[in-house]
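Let's do one together. I've listed all components of the complex below, 790 residues spread over three lines.
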Amino acid sequence: MNVIARDITKAFKDATVLDHVTVQIPAGRVTGLWGINGSGKTMLMRIICGLVRPTSGEVLFDRKVLGRDLAHPLSTGALIEGPALLANRTGFDNLRLIGMINGTATDRDIRRAIAQVGLDPNERKKFKKYSLGMKQRLGIAAAVFEKPDLVILDEPTNALDTSGVEMVKRVVAAERERGAAVLMACHDKSVLDAVADHVYCMEAGRVVREEDPR
Amino acid sequence: MNGILAHELTKTFRNRWLSVALAIGCILAIVAAAEAITTVDALYRSMSADGEHYGLDATTFLGLSTASSYGNWMAVNANAPLSSTVFFYLAPLLTAIPFSWSYQQERDSYLAHVLLRRTRTQAYGAKAAASFLVGGTVVALPLVLNFIIVSCFLPAYMPQYNECNYTGMFYDSYFSWFFYNAPLMFVALFTLLDFCLAGCWAVLCLAISTLFRNNRVATLIVPYLGLLAWVYLVPNIVFANVQGFSTDLIHCMMATHFSDPPEPLAAAALLVALPAASFVLFLCERRRDVL
Amino acid sequence: MNRHTTTKWTAWRTLLIDLRLGFSASARWYVLTALFALCSIELAVAGSDFFGIEKASLTWADHLALFVGGCEPYVFRQGLIFVPPAGWLLGLLLPAYMTLGYPYRDLMGFGQHALIRTSRASWWLSKCAWIVLTVIAFWAIVVAAATVITVLDGVPFSLRLTQGAFATVSGLANVPPGGIGSLPFFAGVLGMSVALCLAQMTLAFIVRPSVAFGCMAALLVVSAHTMHPALLGNYLMLARLGDAVPGGVSPLVGLGVAAVLAPASVVGGLFFFRRTDLVAKELFA
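Okay, and this is what the predicted structure of the assembly comes out as:
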């Protein structure tokens, strides 16, 4: 599945957060978004996820317009601004609950995803007792366990140690191998340089340049 | 739609606050049953002490309805146990406790997972459905429990219309025909009515939560205060000069009311107005960004 | 002077911040209070017609007291269910709500900045002081509303409670022709209101705010049902004033109970608060 965010602008009363931004996210490739805090990366991701409506512009999933032809994104998993999961459930329960919505992921898929991010699928601890790093890992697992066609990761290396960063690189590579379109935002350029096929550099809501690090 | 509904129902019914709300409701129901049973027992003892006959054997005993399980069911409340009143006055709060806060809690975080997989209409609809079911359960289950308990201790005398002044079930009360002719059906119908009213109220509380940002105390309590304001102001202002009827949720959930008999049209209007108001609020929320 | 000297946070500064933040959180509720008080007192005064009371015979104290008029205690009669006085209930649950949310939200949010700069005792005492001031402000608004109605009706600014006020809420009252002094009653209402809000806050921290509020509502409903000195809501109701109603409660006793309950809530809450872990709780009210 190929995703294009075309000419996206998002303006609030007192600020323009995105200004005519166009980003292409082809299948089987890792697309990076790089920029300092406040450059508009997260807002763009939210728009692609359909959580925020752009002031102008459109998001296309295989040429279908989100909000017009599609009521919600097609086959998408996301980690945006932190792992938003239910505090009083275990990691496995959390993913199983999310999986109930589409009904496509099996328990085995969930266990595999949890193990892939370096957590114990049989962990009985509730999510609220996880450390920050564990929460982040589970958030990544939540983005990939259903094997979606589009994976969106916003600052996935936050709160992760060196082994965690390597895990992120492995997961992203695996998703690329699987043929998913991956959009990853990171303020650490070295991580993007290691995994991304194409990087959009953003500044003050605009794409100021594009790079092909690999 | 099945998946998203299962998702919301799982969250709703595997939720400790449902247990808390049910526990409070059931305790009040049990105490109300105990109060009613002891009142009837005290009445019988007093009559026995005076050498009077009661029950089916007594030809002049005008107390069959108020001594029966149907008359002492907490919705009818013939012997006016205090706990029953406390239950109905707390019911709007109890129905909101299990789930009405969930949208507000999830809006800035967890909701993204749902909206990635389903449309907003489906997401909100499933949440509203789950809220309706759990809100109704919080009221219906204690009512059923109370009826079972009073039925274990009090006989199921058929209510008598000539005793209506003692039960408070008059000709124009809800389902009064069933009360005097098929009382078990009355219990079922009234429980269903209360289930629906409580469910609609829970959905409205969920919808009202879209107006508050990160303030769960307000989500639970502001609708309740609004309801109390309605209970107080509307009869005093709007129907001041009319032998009026109860239009508020609390009194519509009670089968009997001495001075302002419950009006079936009012309950029907609530069953339309509450979901309609919720629908409007959700419609407005649908257009908002999830930031 | 070293301009990089860290400013010392004290309980006093914490209170000032609480007053500012808490007031802005409650501002619209003060407006609602004013509107409700005006409406409620006016309705009660208008309703006095029904009992054959001349509006002109009511005093300023009567107007104020009618805000907490209440009802007669319930006397059991088959077929007559107990109906709590909704206006009275609402009038007392408003300050309960206004003082409920802010301390808890502050603890989970901005207040953490204060907690790392000052002692827990300072934080707690500041919140208690904030509650006291908020309740006083609430009743000040009610007093202002009663004053407005008194001015508009052109009745005397007297502190005497007359038979007229009691007649609208209780058929049991017997007031001497010169009326009775209202200050002990109003002092009792204020004191008990403060004490109950402090107790509610303590319970809110131990259990949950919504449960604490539910307990408050239940207490008021039960108090409206039964006249008994142990049911604290009786001290907040004109229809239970012992000076006029046989078997009623004494406002001085109410003040005494409040004088014990308030510090007990403050101290008990402080004891709990100093020992509890301040982790980010599941943010459910």
